[in-house]
Design a protein that fits this description.
Number of helices: 10
InterPro entries: AAA+_ATPase (IPR003593), ABC_ATPase_HisP-typ (IPR030679), ABC_transporter-like_ATP-bd (IPR003439), ABC_transporter-like_CS (IPR017871), MetN_ABC_transporter-like (IPR050086), P-loop_NTPase (IPR027417)
Membrane topology: Peripheral membrane protein
Bound molecules: adenosine-5'-diphosphate, magnesium ion
Subcellular location: Cell membrane
Radius of gyration: 18 Å
Keywords: ATP-binding, Cell membrane, Membrane, Nucleotide-binding, Transport
CATH architecture: 3-Layer(aba) Sandwich
Strand content: 25-35%
Protein name: ABC transporter related protein
Strand order of the largest sheet: 8-9-10-3-11-12
Shape: globular
Order of helices and strands: HEEEHEEEEHEHHHEHEHEEHH
Largest sheet: 6 strands, mixed
Oligomer: single chain
CATH superfamily: P-loop containing nucleotide triphosphate hydrolases
Length: about 260
């Protein structure tokens, strides 16, 4: 192995190795392999039902793969390798690993009975990463960074969808994850609220955090993604920089998809 190859491999923050997943007869992931280098942004595009959410959920072991595995910074998630075999880790170890990966959902998934501040401090306090006082200080700084310093004492139902999603991003950041996964973070938002959320994600994109973003916002993907991945029927049809996959797609399926969403 050359030094360059070695460096590239060591730098992959998210690696997916030959992921297969079926629900009954539905082969939802049919051999997906992907590597996202540390600090880079990957955008996953693809039609509804192509397996995007399943792939994202598999990255932090919310979904268990039938075959293959995921590694974060070279460390398999949820499993340990025994030669060719994979052995499931105890639930406690999976939870500890998952705490290093942020996840932002389409429908925000905030805790409705907690204030904005408590939503952001809950995980750092529960995982004892921070004392309550430190967690509050960090949460206030994160809320300010997403433009919501004045909403700390509000409840989620008192906020717009765009504001709720920015709280969800602050909450994900509170665990200082090296990797953040976004599953269609703007598709539940009214069009006029999309820009504020994309602006926050764009800031993160330049912060050194590795991002994997499932999105239908092709213009956004072109602007922020280092790597664009087009998924169709559980397979990666093509992947590469936006200048190739978005601007000069090689595969007819990618062209057909882009002609519908652009
Ligand atoms: P996407 O996010 O690209 O729209 P998904 O990963 O959500 O696609 O789903 C891919 C396929 O897997 C769909 O056919 C969906 O119905 C199916 N699927 C997803 N989750 C489950 C589940 N928990 N049980 C059964 N089928 C599922
Ligand atoms: Mg989905």
């Amino acid at each position: 192995m050359t030094t360059a190859q070695h460096t590239a491999e060591a730098a992959a923050a998210v690696e997916i190795h030959n992921a297969h997943k079926s629900y009954g007869v539905n082969h939802v992931l049919a051999g997906v392999s992907l590597a996202v280098p540390a600090g880079q942004v990957a955008a996953i595009l693809g039609p509804s039902g192509s397996g995007k959410s399943t792939l994202l959920r598999a990255i932090n072991h919310l979904e268990k793969l039938d075959v293959g595995y995921v590694a974060i910074n070279g460390e398999p998630v949820g499993v340990r390798r025994h030669g060719d075999r994979l052995k499931e880790l105890p639930e406690q170890a999976i939870l500890a690993q998952r705490a290093r990966i942020g996840f932002v959902f389409q429908n925000f998934n905030l805790f409705p009975h907690l204030t904005v501040l408590d939503n952001v401090t809950a995980a750092p306090v529960a995982t004892r990463q921070h004392s309550r006082a430190d967690a509050v200080e960090l949460a206030r700084a994160l809320l300010a960074s997403v433009g919501l310093a004045d909403k700390a004492d509000a409840y989620p139902r008192q906020l717009s969808g765009g504001q709720q999603q920015r709280v969800a991003i602050a909450r994900a950041l509170a665990l200082r994850p090296g990797v953040i996964l976004f599953d269609e973070p703007t598709s539940a938002l009214d069009p006029e609220l999309v820009g504020d959320v994309l602006a926050v994600i764009k800031d993160l994109a330049t912060s050194g955090t590795t991002l994997v973003i499932v999105t239908h916002e092709v213009g956004f993907a072109r602007e922020v993604a280092d790597l664009v991945v087009f998924l169709d029927a559980g397979r990666i049809v093509e992947q590469g920089p936006p200048s190739e996959v978005i601007d000069n797609p090689r595969h007819p399926r990618t062209r057909e998809f882009l002609s519908k969403v652009l």
